[in-house]
């Protein structure tokens, strides 16, 4: 009878032990890290990364993070337990072992739970019930998961169950490969994963044919292929993505710096690859669980085929734990007598326990009978599966099926890889089944193309790509740009950026609309000259995209906004008009109820009182403006205000209406005012000298002469105080330290990546 285990040398067995321990450790560490990341980083209140992911529509809602963390931790737990079991077994036997043999373990449990009474040599009723429960559970588990059980590695239906499991997992892995082709722009990673799927499909019939006489080795190789693919899908692919972002992650911020999200290539890589890295839906989470569970099952079966442990020198290179290698082998007479004598002692105890007339023992007997009945029905139903002709036909079908599956996957990948490289594409994708080249990040660089940016020129370039797959459009260095109507075909566009160009025409037939751009989220116009300094018709469509909540204009000649803009643009948006030509803040801005508003760098000399009372406003930037000398004497500041940026202005006096919100922010540990480079900070400079005591610092402040600008208008805030107790209030409310200047749009970063070269 052929061996039911794969015989290995001591060195080979030790190598397999180390490999499997390492895989368990990596899987446990990865799942544990995911659980920690979702629970304690993404799950933290006001986490910037979670906010960015939510804005980009990546991943699940924050309410689901605890459940994701719990399930990831649940996956890590069995890996950790298996590692402990392997280490404990190796220490127990003083040699490499995967587990303690069942006979040794049962003997230990029996001695622990059912020690014989000193006189009667019979277990008590509680001990008897305990032993019966152990035996019932053992019989039930053995019938399903033992080597010869229904799901065991030596079960009659091993190949049928393995085929069903692999078909299900391979279908999920094929779907994963398709998602990777759709989202991942890294060709090497896609090629690696597809090659594994194809090799797994094609290797199965090859293994079954080459090792048809060696059942153990045949099953081992099939399980190894299955396990490798599960490990790659569950651990390797996410880790390969994580490695590329480790250097960019800010551990103090617990997120990626804001400037990176404005880097076109980095941002687009993140938007695509994070769809694979983060859990995006409950279905995606279930798929990841299937890969993880499949990996655990395959590794468990591999250990069964390798044997429980390596025996010592007294028994050569035999593998222990497999005493049923040949159940029909004859046993020598002297061993039969010895075994019979040994069996006579414990066997009656177990039989007495199971045959007792107590209600609990009767329940055990009924459960055992039901199990036997189920097994008999399964045996009856399996007669067809045992038919040799049926088995041959089924094996032929399986071989053809997996070969065809692998061929289809390979064909789809090769067809996608054959698409030409586009010159004006900063991020090209190769999704399966697309007839045209796919570009997620389309660049129109008029300088490199030697064009002006007329409609005809632009359409000639954009007609080369699949418009439904474009995610971001970047327009650079166009001296006379005309927005063509083809822009309305970019239905999946999320970001539109225009840099260092002059927009001469953007008509209504090329407008941004909810119908044509349902997922458009960001509009960035940087270093752009706009005709007449007003918004073009293409940005004033009555069907303006409703989720376009990030509108940023930096360094433009925009000087006015239409009075009806609040009926066109969405409310609760981030509006940034930085370094433009506004001389006042239009009233329509208050009616737009922005969450974030920036007019920094505009020559504005007066801030409307109504602006500070806007309940939706969290962040207000009115800095980098030397014409701004005072804040309103009387105003009502919304309690929702998070920070006010007044850096590099001529403000020297803080009125008392700031105090209520100052106190709120002090209790929360936030600074309300960022005031680098203002006269007030020059006056309060000793407060920020940590080498001075409170008394010395405030004495130095009092010694300074207050200018006329520091006397009003309005009632002075507690921030104007000079007592010793005022120092901590001022330090905790006003940020004056050099190097903390801030603009919401990172103009320097944009110039670095987009400047003429």
Key features?
single chain; 757 residues; alpha/beta; Leucine-rich repeat, LRR (right-handed beta-alpha superhelix); 3 domains; 13-stranded mixed β-sheet; two-stranded antiparallel ribbon; 15 strands; 48% helix; 9% strand; flat; LRR_dom_sf; membrane; transmembrane helix; transmembrane
Strand pairing plus helix content: what structural class?
alpha/beta
Query: How much helix is in the residues?
Result: 40-55%
The number of strands is 15
Give the rounded overall mean pLDDT: 84
Largest sheet: 13 strands, mixed
Fraction in beta strands: 5-15%
Contiguous runs where pLDDT drops below 50 for at least 5 residues: 117-123, 312-331, 334-357
Q: Separation of termini?
A: 75 Å
Number of helices: 23
Overall outline? flat
Integer-rounded radius of gyration: 36 Å
Explain this structure.
With 757 residues, the protein is α/β, with parallel strands linked by helices. 48% of the residues lie in helices and 9% in strands. The protein has three domains: 344 residues, no CATH class; 127 residues; 174 residues, Leucine-rich repeat, LRR (right-handed beta-alpha superhelix). It is flat. InterPro entries: LRR_dom_sf (IPR032675).
What's the topology here?
Blueprint: H1 10-42, H2 48-56, H3 65-93, H4 102-113, H5 125-145, H6 158-183, H7 187-210, H8 215-245, H9 258-261, H10 264-277, H11 282-306, E1 309-310, E2 319-320, H12 333-344, H13 347-355, H14 359-381, H15 388-417, E3 425-429, E4 438-445, H16 446-449, H17 455-462, E5 472-476, E6 481-482, E7 495-505, E8 522-530, E9 550-556, E10 574-578, H18 587-591, E11 596-598, E12 619-621, E13 643-645, H19 659-668, E14 673-674, H20 679-683, H21 694-703, H22 726-733, E15 734-735, H23 747-754
Parallel strand pairs: 4-5, 5-7, 6-7, 7-8, 8-9, 9-10, 10-11, 11-12, 12-13, 13-14, 14-15
Antiparallel strand pairs: 1-2, 3-4
Helix pairs in contact: 1-3, 1-8, 3-11, 5-14, 6-7, 6-8, 6-10, 7-8, 7-15, 8-10, 8-11
